[in-house]
Each structure stands twice: as structure tokens, then as C-alpha cells.
Specification:
691 residues; 3 domains; mainly beta; Jelly Rolls; Tachylectin-2, Chain A; 2% helix; 2 helices
Length: 691
């Protein structure tokens, strides 16, 4: 099970679910570091940070006031803003001992044995399981020029208690016998290793190096970080070991499914690359694109979303160069090319920017990102669809550029009726064009528009975002990323605005054309086939488990409910993780609720199907999401599928509608069927696991 303390994940014992590292919870704590500043005028880097989800505490240099050491924290939640009286650092190239002591609501920063900063906080932060230690970068989700420390670290320690002044004065480099730290780094070997064994080995990024017993940081983009987070072992979901999976950029090439993706929580955001032949197991390939340009250039910041396509044996990766320090503009479209999808060469001579006539060109206040490039067979030229702003109104629009050769681009009027959409993906099935963006889609008869929203124009939510698809010659395979919520909280997801950017790759799905411009969605057959070991069927529906008058009846191998009483529930004992497939014949006025991980007190994750109202609802304890206009074909049994795997719940109804979310509060429980109204018949049911 998972238990919580003030929203912090404490323990995870569900099979396949782990937390790295599994620490005791710390509120009182002490951060100690022996450090030398190389550039007194550098700003905003941290020499030692504890980072967990959206909270961090660290020893930060010069973020608010130049040359001042301060207790850094998320949105200054535990950082005094008035630092006028705090002394400025003067020792360049000299090793000094710094310590930040967190004792209750009191935070004190010491330089050697002198107090240099002090303040009171309203709510101390708690750090425990899933905490990263970061050296050099202010916090792991940062990625700006003013977030990196310039200098070297001789030694660092983390204590799970507040040290006294006398204890601080007694600290000696290389000797921890009297103080017993939780974590201890001396940088005596090339691997950045915690000598206490509490934290995993840190990864060195972007020029960070261990040299002569020191961790050397350049103040530009170099940092080190220990891997951390909640992980579950899944046969159908991918996530990198460090950071998270965000904004997929799919490509089918050379007989394989490729997904480039933005790796979050690792400073400047790179493009990573994975490949699969079965859509289940993913091979990690070399990083495709990374921040490697001038600090004030288009490649000096984030490598944000774009698209990959092939033309005449060359692969083209169109990406967003996002850099707040670039005087030419926050965002421009850039190009890299490859002959094999593995080694990429940037082409700086090809830079696409807004024209200033149709699309807004102001350097700081406009969007110009997420390019999707493809060959438009109808117009016999290349199209680039990009999220932009109108030059006159500054409203978000779906911008259009055209090119005969992938080199010269001409601005065209924006797509009519489309509005601005993140991560656009444009394609055609039959005579209908589709434009997917963010978490919804539009359809049109002509790609220039007018575009309109079908009655139901969401592929999946609230659990999945920024999905895109690739075409393998037969199927349009779509995948996105599933939000991470706060530790232990089912109530924190995308609709509340508190979910993370990035998480796990969701289960790949197949998109097919539906009625009236809609897109239908079903799980890929590879995922279904992976769950081949059946553990429960209709035969396991024991009448002794029936509730509320035992209105479910077995008849000729079918399970039928006539809901003469409010709520009739049939329960199955199932594993913590499994695949469910059922076929249900509905009366139009019936309502079926499928309960996942149902508890004895009634708490569960529930999918409710109301075919007469064309309505689907997904709920968790304390939360409900409803989707309207989800029509089903009731002339035959409706297929209900669900992948209940780790913290992921992905439901599919009628091979049309997907409904997903994360599950944090309930790690196991029963499978329940509840019927209301006119009744329903379950003609088939199978619960299966992957061998």
C-alpha cells in the first residue's frame, strides 16, 4: 500500500512499484558544502539542492541579490526577499564552508562559522522518498542561463536533522565519525557517489567533471543530479530513468517505431530517442538533439517540440529553439538532418522565424513553436504548421508556412478556424483532414480550413497530453504522456493545473476515422496480446459475492443484471495490475459502472458508461470527469477494455473512446461491476496478466 504524511509519499510496497531513493522524511535538515566560487558575478546557481516533485531547498548563490548566499526554494516559499543587509561574497577561488540549517520554521545560512542569512518560513518543506540531490543547477526543472553555479565543490553533506552551532564548528572535511550525515560526497573518484549509500550515484551533465577531488562546474549548463522518483515496472509503458517523458515526436522508419521525446526535469531540455518493433519494449538510442549553441543563440536553451520526417533518404528533425537570452526571439524553428536517425547534424542556415506581417515578430511576447512538417500531396509542396500569434491581434493561431524544397519558406494565412494549438499534428484519413493539438483535435474537408470541432473532439483526458501519431503503412499509432500527480494524491492531475509537465509514455493507441469528423481510439493489438495469461473469467463470478439482493444472474454462460434495486454489484478478486476485456450488451436506459481497485469502504476508480445519454465518466475518490457525445453502437455488445498497470489506468469503450488517469491512492483492490436502470448483460469477461 501507499501511505502519506502531509501529501508526501512514505512507503510503496505494491509489487513492481518502487521509490528511489527510499528516504526517511526530513523537515529539519542541514545542507553542508565546502565550495569555491570561480565567478563572483554568476547568478542563481545552487551548490547543493534537495528536490522532490514541486519543492526544493538549496544553497543558492546570487539569485536575488548579486554575490549573496541565500536559502533557495520553490517560488521563494522559504526564501526571505529582503537581502539588503546580507553580506556579499568576496572570496574568489578560495574554499569556504557553507551550511543551511532548517530547524522548525527557522532557516539559517552560515558561511564558515558566521551567520550570513536568516529567516522564518510559514511551512517547512518535507523531503523523503523520491528526493533528488542536485549540484550546480538550482533545481532539476530549471533550464535558464541564471540557474547554474560557476566554481568547484570539495565536499557535500546532507543531514536529516538541524545541526547546532557547535556541531557545525566541529565539522572537519573528510571526517564524519561524529556527525553521521545522511548523504556524503567527497568526489574522490570519477563516479559521483554518496559514501553513505543513501542516494544513488549522480549523473554528470553538460560538462560537469570530477577533477582533483572536486566537482567542477562551469556556470553555463554543467550540473550533477542523483536519479529519483516513483517508478513502477510496466510491460507496456516507457519512462527514462532520469527525468520524465514529455512531448513525443513519433516516426515510423526502417521497419520500426521511433519516438523522439522531450526529456523533462534535467535542466535544458534535450530530444531523447527510443525505438521499438513491438510498441511495448523500447530501446534507448543516443540523444538526438541537445542544447549546444551559444548562450544567447537559438540552440543555447531548450530543444522544444517539433516533428521528424523523411525525404529522399534524408531524415529532417524540425525543432523549436527556445532561449530567453536570444535577442532575436524567444523561439525560432530550427533544423537538424540525419541519414540513419541516430546521428544528427544541425543546419543553422535553415532558421524559420515569423514574418512580422501575418505573424507577430516581437522577440519576447510571441509564440513560434512546435513545427509539424509534411508533404501535402494535394498542393504538391511541403507544409509547416506552427503554433503562432496573429501580427495584428496577437491571438494564438495555427500558422502555416509552405516550401518547395524544405529550405525556403513562405508565410501563408493561418489555418481558418483552427486557433492556436500546441504540438500540432496534421494528417488525412480518406477525405477527412485532422488537426491534433495538445489535448483535442479538429477536422476539415480542406487542410486550409475551415476547421471545426466534432461533437466529441478529445482523444483522451484527463490523463494524457501532447499526443502525436505515426503511420506504419496500415495504422495511425498515437501516443502521448501521462501526467504525474503529487505524491500520494489522486486529486492532483491536469484539470486542477497542478499536474507535472511530463511523466510516463502512455499506451500506444490506434486512431481510426469515426462518424462526422470524429476520431476513434483503441489499444494497439500488441498491448492486448501481451496479456495472454487469463486469471479470471465469467465463471469466477461467484453468486456468494453478489450484493444488494444478488440481482446478477448467470444464465447460459452470460452474466445478466436487472437492477430492481439501486446499485447491484458483482465483484471479482483480481491482481493489483491486469488487463480487463469485457463485452456488454446494454439496454439503452442502462448504466454500467466498472470499479477498479475497489475497497471494502466503496472507494475505487470508476468508469461509468451511460449509453442512452452518450456519456462516459471517470472518477476517483474526490474527483470526477465527464465526457459527453460519446455515442456507442448498441446493435452489438460493447467492448470494454482497461489496462490497470501500476499507477496507470487506461480505459477504452466500444473501440471508440479512451479515458485515462493516474492512480496513486489505491494500489490494489477488487474489480466490481455495478448496474443501474434497465439492466445489462455481460456476454464475455476476461482478466489477464502478462506472463
Amino acid at each position: 500500500m501507499i501511505t502519506t504524511l502531509a501529501g508526501l509519499l512514505l512507503l510503496a510496497v505494491e509489487p513492481g512499484l518502487s521509490v528511489e531513493p527510499n528516504l526517511p522524511v526530513m523537515r529539519d535538515k542541514t545542507l553542508v558544502v565546502w565550495v569555491s566560487v570561480a565567478d563572483l558575478d554568476s547568478r542563481g546557481g545552487s551548490v547543493l539542492t534537495l528536490d522532490c516533485m514541486d519543492s526544493f531547498d538549496g544553497l543558492v548563490y546570487g539569485e536575488i541579490r548579486p554575490r549573496v548566499w541565500m536559502p533557495g526554494s520553490d517560488r521563494y516559499a522559504r526564501t526571505p526577499r529582503d537581502q539588503a543587509a546580507w553580506p556579499q561574497e568576496t572570496a574568489s577561488g578560495q574554499t569556504v564552508r557553507l551550511a543551511a540549517v532548517y530547524a522548525g520554521r527557522q532557516v539559517t545560512v552560515y558561511r564558515c562559522d558566521e551567520v550570513v542569512a536568516q529567516g522564518t518560513v510559514e511551512q517547512p518543506a518535507a523531503f523523503g522518498p523520491g528526493t533528488s540531490v542536485v549540484f550546480g543547477l538550482r533545481h532539476r526543472a530549471a533550464g535558464r542561463p541564471d540557474c547554474y553555479f560557476a566554481g568547484s565543490i570539495d565536499e557535500a553533506r546532507v543531514y536529516a536533522r538541524a545541526l547546532t552551532v557547535d556541531e557545525l564548528r566541529a565539522l572537519t572535511p573528510g571526517d564524519v565519525r561524529a556527525s553521521n550525515p545522511l548523504g556524503w560526497w567527497t568526489f574522490d573518484e570519477p563516479v559521483v557517489r554518496d559514501r553513505r549509500g543513501t542516494f544513488p550515484d549522480a549523473e554528470l551533465h553538460d560538462g560537469a567533471v570530477v577533477r582533483d577531488g572536486k566537482l567542477v562546474l562551469d556556470g553555463k549548463r554543467a550540473y550533477a543530479i542523483t536519479p529519483a522518483g516513483r517508478r513502477f515496472t510496466s510491460p507496456i509503458h516507457y519512462r527514462p530513468r532520469v527525468g520524465c517523458f514529455a512531448d513525443p515526436i513519433p516516426l515510423f522508419a526502417q521497419g520500426a517505431y521511433h519516438v523522439f521525446y522531450l526529456q523533462g526535469e534535467v535542466g535544458w531540455c534535450p530530444w531523447q530517442h527510443v525505438r521499438s518493433r513491438d510498441l511495448l519494449t523500447w530501446e534507448e538510442l543516443p540523444t538526438a538533439l541537445r542544447s549546444d549553441g551559444a548562450a544567447d543563440g537559438p540552440d543555447g536553451g531548450h530543444m522544444f517540440t517539433g516533428s521528424v520526417m523523411e525525404h529522399d533518404g534524408t531524415f529532417y528533425a524540425w525543432y523549436t529553439g527556445h532561449n530567453p537570452s536570444n535577442p532575436a526571439g524567444l523561439e525560432v524553428v530550427r533544423l537538424a538532418t540525419s541519414r540513419d536517425t541516430l546521428t544528427w547534424t544541425k543546419q543553422p542556415e535553415v532558421t524559420v522565424a515569423p514574418d512580422g506581417v501575418i505573424y507577430a515578430k516581437e522577440p519576447r511576447t510571441r509564440d513560434w513553436r512546435d513545427p509539424y512538417v509534411f508533404y501535402n500531396e494535394v498542393e504538391k509542396c511541403f507544409w509547416m504548421v506552427v503554433f503562432a500569434n496573429d501580427a495584428k491581434t496577437h491571438a494564438g493561431v495555427q500558422g502555416l508556412m509552405t516550401s518547395p524544397d524544405l529550405k525556403t519558406w513562405t508565410a501563408q494565412p493561418p489555418l481558418a478556424g483552427a486557433g492556436g494549438q500546441e504540438c500540432p499534428d496534421v494528417f488525412r484519413i480518406g477525405n477527412t483532414w485532422y488537426l491534433i493539438g495538445g489535448d483535442h483535435y479538429l477536422s476539415a474537408d480542406n487542410p486550409r480550413g475551415p476547421w471545426h470541432a466534432p461533437a466529441q473532439n478529445v482523444i483522451d483526458r484527463p490523463g494524457v497530453y501532447a499526443g502525436k501519431r505515426q503511420f506504419d503503412g496500415q495504422r495511425h499509432i498515437w501516443t502521448g504522456w501521462a501526467w504525474d500527480g503529487q505524491p500520494g494524491a489522486d486529486g492532483v492531475l491536469s484539470d486542477s493545473g497542478e499536474g507535472s509537465w511530463g511523466g510516463y509514455q502512455c499506451l500506444p493507441r490506434e486512431l481510426v476515422a469515426g462518424d462526422a469528423g470524429q476520431l476513434y481510439c483503441r489499444p494497439v493489438r500488441e498491448a492486448v496480446a501481451a496479456f495472454s495469461q487469463t486469471v479470471s473469467t465469467l465463471a469466477d463470478a461467484n453468486p456468494e459475492l453478489h450484493a444488494n439482493g444478488a440481482v446478477w444472474r448467470m444464465d447460459a454462460g452470460k452474466l445478466t443484471a436487472r437492477a430492481s434495486r439501486p446499485g447491484s454489484t458483482c465483484r471479482f478478486d483480481v491482481p493489483a495490475s491486469y488487463y480487463l476485456e469485457a463485452e456488454v450488451a446494454f439496454e439503452p436506459a442502462s448504466t454500467l459502472t466498472v470499479a477498479f481497485r475497489e475497497q471494502n469502504d466503496g472507494r475505487a476508480y470508476m468508469l461509468t458508461i451511460e449509453p442512452g445519454a452518450d456519456r462516459l465518466t471517470l472518477s476517483a475518490p474526490g474527483q470526477t470527469w465527464t465526457r459527453e457525445h460519446c455515442a456507442l453502437d448498441l446493435t452489438r455488445p460493447v467492448k470494454v477494455q482497461a489496462f490497470v498497470v501500476g499507477t496507470m489506468l487506461e480505459c477504452f469503450v466500444g473501440e471508440r473512446w479512451a479515458f485515462s488517469r493516474r492512480m496513486y491512492g489505491l494500489s490494489s483492490g477488487k474489480l466490481g461491476l455495478d448496474v443501474r436502470g434497465a439492466g445489462a448483460t455481460v456476454t464475455a469477461l476476461r482478466v489477464a496478466v502478462k506472463p
